Task: structure prediction
Amino acid sequence: MSLMVAEVYDALIEAGTSEQKAKAAAGAIPVGGEIATKEDLRELRDELGERIEQVKHELGERIGKLERDMGERFGKLERDMAVLKFAYGPVILALLVKIAFFP
Result:
């Protein structure tokens, strides 16, 4: 136990608290080095802000890449569909002519 916690423990014992409860209460008090200071919180805020900006940038790049990839894929799909339309048109016309004129 640190000095501060030991003093709390001793004070609780003198006040008539059981040894078990005094240990638990003294152990629950944070030691000075474990408490975050305003400066610690500012540094953490700045670090988190920088990390958030990095993640935003990375997500923007990934979304841009996905948009480009999807644009290319949809373009290819549209071209393929146009070829199919052009190829099946004459076939369907020929079948209709056969059915209409050559039963």
In short: The chain has a mean pLDDT of 87. The radius of gyration is 38 Å. Helices lie at 3-14, 19-28, 38-101.
